[in-house]
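Lecture notes, part 5. Sequence design as translation. It can be helpful to think of inverse folding as translation between two languages: the language of shapes and the language of residues. The source text, in structure tokens, appears below.
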């Protein structure tokens, strides 16, 4: 399970901006289910869907929103991974 908590170059959750967001929202202080729910709702509702190369504009498309969700969850101790379906 530890592999799903690791930081990676893409899931850079020790970045100052990520840590500031976690501290501001106090997600790390919540029970696990509430952590998941609040982080999920934040990414779903507060990060607009749009095409951008980074989150500095406050938007992202499905892959970037998923990456942010994973980074935030791992940063607060919730193991997670992506399971992608490819249709041919």
């Amino acid at each position: 399970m530890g592999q799903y908590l690791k930081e990676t170059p893409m899931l850079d959750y020790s970045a100052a901006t990520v840590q500031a967001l976690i501290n501001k929202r106090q997600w790390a202080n919540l029970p696990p289910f509430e952590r998941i729910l609040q982080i999920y709702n934040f990414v779903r509702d507060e990060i607009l869907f749009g095409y951008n190369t980074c989150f500095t504009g406050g938007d992202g498309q499905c892959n970037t929103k998923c990456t942010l969700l994973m980074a935030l969850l791992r940063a607060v101790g919730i193991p997670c991974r992506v399971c992608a379906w490819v249709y041919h």
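The translated text above is only one of many valid answers, since several sequences can fold into similar shapes. The chain has a mean pLDDT of 88.
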